[in-house]
Amino acid sequence: MASSTPSPHLRVAVLIDADNTSPRHASALLAELAQYGVATVKRAYGDWTTPQLTGWKGQLNQHAIAPVQQFAYTTGKNATDSALIIDAMDLLYSGNLDAFALVSSDSDFTRLATRLREAGKTVFGLGLRKTPASLVAACDTFIYLELLGDEASDEEDASAASAADSGEDDEAPLPNLESLLARAINKQSADDGWAYVGALGQYLRSANSSFDPRLYGFSKLTDLIQAQPYLVTQGSGGEVQVSLKGKAQPKKAPTKAPAKKAASRSRKKSATEAAG
Fold first, then answer.
1. Quick one: 85 and 196 in the same domain?
2. Does the residue 195 lie in any domain?
3. What is the Rg, in whole angstroms, of the alpha carbon atoms belonging to the chain?
4. List of the chain residues with pLDDT < 50
């Protein structure tokens, strides 16, 4: 997993599996990716002759997303996946991009994500909560579309995810938050038991590509941490630190020299200066 926060200047290729993604997520997913880099390439793949993709046409124009036509040559085979994969490899070898955003809930893109990372590229995954664990783990960062605000209706989500594996449709349960945070703090804390929230966030994303405070109802990691009764925090702004309750060592105030010793040092200093 990536160990550092991606640069906001990354050149990103956004490749959307339109057969597998609702158009209602288009604005929100592009806004989310803008935090990480610039969407240099924006393409959506599907059979645009079918009525199922009609809802995408307005989004294509609004966001300057280039549609890539791929006819379904054979029933039961997803030709869209192959077209997206081929384009991704062509873009990889062009050498003009720093990162790829794969927008799909389809496990068929797991190997593509792995291959792009092997080539040194950052890979963002964006999909529904039903996305198979294999694809989630293959990405540096995986973002669930349901957390972005523009949620599709149940009917639209069911239609958009029709290409997902039938045995992998259930949402994966959330990791135990207390266990997750405790392990992260133990790994990132100094000898005094305190860990900086910034370092904690980087570790959590590195250890679990889909970790997101929004999954637990909080927009920021600091707010999530401060709401946990088994944690304590100190500091403010970018210097907030966190520790497990009962394990934190209080910060020691700087010791002051006794008044007599301080006066003695002052007299010695004065005498030295006078001699000079």
1. no
2. yes
3. 26
4. 1-4, 75-77, 150-168, 253-254, 257
- Distance, CA of 145 to CA of 79 (rounded, Å): 24
Given the structure tokens 């599709």, which residue do they identify? Answer: 152
Asked if residues 141 and 124 have their Cβ atoms less than 8 Å apart, the reply is: yes
* Residue 65 domain boundaries: 10-168
- Identify the CA nearest to 30 among candidates 149, 135, 186: 149
Encoding tokens for residue 174?
Answer: 């959330």
Cα distance between residue 168 and residue 104, in whole Å: 14
| pTM as predicted | 0.70
CATH number (domain holding residue 229): 3.30.420.610
Helical H segments across 39-176, by residue range: 56-62, 79-94, 110-118, 133-138, 154-160
Amino acid type, 95:
G
| Tens digits of residue pLDDT in 222-260 | 999 999 999 999 988 878 999 998 877 765 544 554 555
For the chain, the residue count is: 276
- Is 187 found in the same domain as 53? no
The C-alpha atoms of residue 227 and residue 238 are separated, in whole angstroms, by 18
